[in-house]
Amino acid sequence: MKSIRSRLFMILMITTGVVWMSAIAWIYLSTRAEVERVLDARLIEAARMVSSLITSQEIDPKRAAQIPAVEPTMHASYDRQLSCQIWALDGTLVGRSDAAPATPLSDAQDGFSETLIGGETWRVYAVVNTDLGMRVLVGDNMRVRDRLVADVIRGLALPALLILPILAGLIWLSVRKGLGPLNNMAHALETRSASDLSALPDVDTPSEIKPVIRSLNGLFGRVHAARERERDFTAFAAHELRTPIAGLKTQAQVALGSEDPGIRANALRQIVVGVDRTSRLMRQLTDLTNAERGETDSDNHRVNLGKLASRLADDIRQHYPGAALLEIDEKLHDIDLDIDPSLFMLATRNLMENAVLHSRVESPVHCGMRLEGDGVALTIDDSGPGIPEDELPKVCERFYRGRNKTAMGSGLGLAIADLAAKRLGGSLSLKNRPEGGFRAELHLNAAPSSTTPRGEFRHNDGELSPLPVVADAKGDRLAHER
């Protein structure tokens, strides 16, 4: 049963039925016990009255036997329900009422007993009159008692059966009314357009629906924010791509229209720079998308930080031959971590590129490390102008380019490094150095372990293998740890 309304209706009907049947059963048992108590008291009273009349000799024993049978009962159909017998102690029948059987109602000498006579059970009370040598027996046919109790229960059950359809209708209307706010919310969601991400109204709504509305409004807010980021991302990416492409076209026109070899050579160099910038931007856009989606090339492996940093430094030197040099601290070769190598290289490459592009050529970029608690911090120091303090909170935003931007910069490098650091379970911190320049710290929570031989890395199964390579956006081969 998939309908909440039908399920709730059935639950209420079954619950109501169970309660009603339990009440009838309780009434039946209590009524039966009360009826038996009253009728037993009546048997005692009738037997003692007959015995008293016989003892006082105010009435003939034969007539005395008729007295209990003609006393009025609680209902006309139960008149003459009592049967009375008077027996001599020698076994002679002295008298009996009209409805009483000819055989003794009971063989008991005194008190209550039950006897089966003619296939029917009798409840009998006996009183022995020793002065007159007689025994008075007054009994009830149990069938009559059962009929009395059944009539009482029938009087309760018949109205219940008549009321049941009305009750079912009222329950159905109540359930429908109670689920009205949920139906209204479903209708509001069904009729709104796909582009409408406004919050649902949360005024005068039942407390049971408020968590659903708040969750939906939270979801709408997150979807709206994601769409805004996507829209901004597309707009910024289009703008960043349009600029180098326009420059490429301009330089190509200059090269085609000029006869001066120097001007032509300079235009071709500018074309190469523009292609490099466009290639880097495309690679960064791809890296950012993959990092956001959690799409990396590998899972956690045991990797050597010095090995990865050296490979990245070699590749950056090839791409930026005129830029500042990269120095790798030898201590990094002594650090092995269980991390995702693709995410680590993604973060480190962008931090290195950012440092190289902003540093002076004569001042190398230094890549080092320090141990902190159970983790490691990879430090990258450059000698550039740094970042103004008011821009530090914004530099990890996508496409943000501060006052100290470079021609090759796209405003994505630090954003990619920050996202990759978070995917690694670590963090990225940025600060200006007191002595000048800028420092980026990649904090990794993975605990360092013993090193492996340089030039090799160790899989989780302990097997040594060389480092594979993959091609970057320009077709150059860049080593990746796996």
UniProtKB/TrEMBL annotation:
Annotated compartments: Membrane
The organism of origin for this protein: Shinella granuli
EC number(s) from the headed UniProt entry: 2.7.13.3
Domain of life: Bacteria
Membrane topology per record: Multi-pass membrane protein
Predominant location category: membrane
Ranges for region Disordered: 447-482
Protein name, as recorded: histidine kinase
Catalytic activity: ATP + protein L-histidine = ADP + protein N-phospho-L-histidine
Classification lineage: Bacteria, Pseudomonadati, Pseudomonadota, Alphaproteobacteria, Hyphomicrobiales
